Amino acid sequence: MTVPDTLADRLRSLLASDVYTGKGRLRSDDQLVRERVARGLGEAAASIRVLIRSWRADEVPPSTREQPFPPAEVMEPIRKAERLIRAIDDVAAVVKGLPVLNTDKVWDRVRRVGLEDLLQFDWNLVGESDVLARDLSAVTALNEIDIGGYEARVRRIREIIAERQRFIEIS
Asked: Has residue 171 got a pLDDT over 60?
């Protein structure tokens, strides 16, 4: 079964793989999409870690007897960034831990009526994680990260995952 949809074609080109085309491939394609999303999230977290290392090297003063701990205002961007990393890592774990979709009645229904919707969910997940990684790789300093904005984007990825799970259960 081939999905002759432009969204399917775009997802295939983005993943560099022929996804959602054969009965036996649906499950492996699902895993491929999840791995791609997790990779984007991992790259986003890695970009933040690089910025934290740079911030520590450039902005955090060495300890002295008079000031054994760095000033709170210097450490605040690190704390916020670490919180964002935890949120990104948590959503990556959710993506990786999604239940494997068996070739049972659910997949039979998805193949018949819901493949277009499943492709849309997957397209959104891959796109959101890639944009998050791309945008964070463009940030040049830790204090330039819009923590609230990126946390909202991570919440959006969680919402897409939840919508996708509901769709799979209902289909």
From this structure: no
Within a domain: 1: no
Domain count of the fold of the chain: 1
SS3 string, 66-87, reads CCCCCCHHHHHHHHHHHHHHHH
Enter the DSSP assignment of 97.
T
What's the pTM value of the predicted model, to 2 decimals?
0.82
Q: Determine contact, residues 136/145, Cβ cutoff 8 Å.
A: yes
Distance CA 107, CA 102 (A): 7
Cα–Cα nearest to 80, from 144, 128, 37: 144
Taking 80 as the threshold, does the pLDDT of residue 117 lie above it? yes
Q: What is the dihedral of CA 61, 63, 66, 70, to 10 degrees?
A: 50
The one-letter code for the residue type at 67 is Q
Does 121 reside within a domain?
yes
Domain of 50, in residue numbers: 6-170
